[in-house]
Structure formats: structure tokens, C-alpha cells
Design brief:
Elements: E1 7-8, E2 12-15, H1 22-29, H2 32-36, H3 49-55, H4 57-62, E3 66-73, E4 79-88, E5 93-100, H5 109-123, E6 129-135, H6 139-147, E7 151-162, E8 165-175, H7 176-180
Parallel strand pairs: 5-6
Antiparallel strand pairs: 1-2, 2-3, 3-4, 4-5, 6-8, 7-8
Helix pairs in contact: 1-3
The chain binds coenzyme A.
Length: about 180
């Protein structure tokens, strides 16, 4: 597969990012609340980071190392967040990651997008396992994982450091066999 698809849900269109999205990504991701519970988003958010991040997506997809999607609203095309899979082809497994712009929280958008990504991962990418981590102090993210049918596999105590503080990480996963049974 050499073209990343678009995925449509009831309220959302998930599509590849384009360079013109950089300003909106910058504006949403610079919010400290986004950096606070993610591992790879810095704060302050450097001016050129969004453009660099977007430019890395196409090679990642082409090389079979993942698929990152812009979450946009079908109603008006607004870019509201990001969701994606980083794949480990040897094991047919991928890590799910996401963030949603703060003005759009708690409207079910991440859950809706994640359901589509899970289906895409198992049915189109042929994955066997999709897993995700959340900071223990991030119940909203854990809730998304639960709502999309992932199962808890435990808590990794003080597994990472964020801003000088050791953080516990919850790990959730779903297998293709779980997905097929739904
Ligand atoms: C985590 C995040 C992506 C959730 O996005 P979202 O679009 O608001 O998620 P949804 O609306 O689909 O679901 C959120 C769920 O968490 C629940 N929730 C929100 N805050 C909560 C809290 N403090 N305690 C418990 N549950 C909470 C909501 O009620 C909702 O569950 P419900 O449908 O059962 O009521 C968003 O908060 C975010 O981007 N945070 C910063 C970045 C981040 O943490 N990314 C994930 C890294 S693992």
C-alpha cells in the first residue's frame, strides 16, 4: 500500500496531514495541557516543530513504520487533533497515540477516531496487536482505551520521566482476535 487512506466516521474525517496544517497543529499543540500528559510533545513548542513533524509522516507511512492522521470535523473541516499508529512490523504490532485540542475535549472525538484506527490497523494493515500507554494521572486517556475495547495489561511503575518527575504508565492492548470477536 503506498497511499495513506482517508477514514470517515459519523462526525470525523481522518486524513493525512498536509503542510498547510502546521499553523493549526502549532496552535493546538502549544497548549501546556497537551504536552503535560504526552511523552514526545515538548513545551514550549518550538516554532518549526509542527512542519518538521508533518514532513516525517509520509516517509513513515511509505516505509511501513506507521500511519498518522489529522482528526478533522466533517461538519466544517476543522483540524481538531491527531491520532496514529507507530508500527513494529516484525511483530505485527503497533502503538496507538493521540492528542485532541483542548477546546474539543470530552465530546467523544478521540474515542470515535480511535475506533476507526483500530479497525484500520487490524483490517487494512493486518496488525495482530495494538497497544497504548497512558500516564496514571491521565484518566481521560485511560477511559478512551477502555471505551474502544482495549484491556488493561498493568501499570509500569515510574517507567518514564516527565519534566523531572517519574511517572507510572498504564498499558492497554487489543488483539486481532478480540477485534474479530466483536
Ligand atoms: C486524552 C485525550 C486525547 C482525550 O480526548 P477526548 O476527545 O476528550 O476523549 P473522549 O471525549 O473520546 O473521551 C474522554 C473520556 O474521558 C472521560 N474523562 C475526561 N476527564 C476525566 C477525568 N478527569 N477523570 C475521569 N474521566 C475523565 C470523559 O468523561 C470521557 O469518558 P465518557 O465518554 O465515558 O464520559 C485528551 O484529553 C488529550 O488530548 N489530552 C492531552 C494529550 C494526551 O494526554 N494524549 C494521550 C496520551 S496517552
Amino acid at each position: 500500500m503506498n497511499q495513506q487512506p482517508e477514514l470517515r466516521t459519523e462526525r470525523l474525517l481522518l486524513r493525512p496531514f498536509i503542510p498547510q496544517d502546521a499553523a493549526t497543529v502549532q496552535q493546538l499543540a502549544r497548549d501546556r495541557a497537551i504536552a503535560d500528559t504526552t511523552l514526545n510533545i515538548p513545551h514550549p513548542y518550538p516554532d518549526d516543530l509542527a512542519a518538521k513533524w508533518i514532513s516525517a509522516h509520509a516517509p513513515r507511512f511509505r516505509d511501513g513504520r506507521g500511519a498518522i492522521f489529522a482528526i478533522t470535523l466533517l461538519a466544517d473541516g476543522s483540524l481538531v487533533g491527531s491520532i496514529g499508529l507507530v508500527t513494529h512490523p516484525t511483530h505485527n504490532r503497533a502503538e496507538l497515540g493521540y492528542w485532541m485540542g483542548r477546546p474539543y475535549w470530552n465530546q467523544g472525538y478521540t474515542t470515535e477516531a480511535a475506533r476507526a484506527i483500530i479497525r484500520y490497523g487490524f483490517e487494512d494493515l493486518g496488525l495482530n496487536r495494538i497497544f497504548a500507554y497512558h500516564f496514571r494521572r491521565n484518566p481521560a486517556s485511560e477511559r478512551v482505551m477502555q471505551k474502544i475495547g482495549m484491556q488493561s495489561e498493568g501499570m509500569l511503575r515510574q517507567h518514564v520521566q516527565k519534566w523531572g518527575v517519574y511517572e507510572d504508565l498504564g498499558i492497554y492492548a487489543i488483539l486481532k482476535s478480540n477485534h474479530d470477536a466483536t
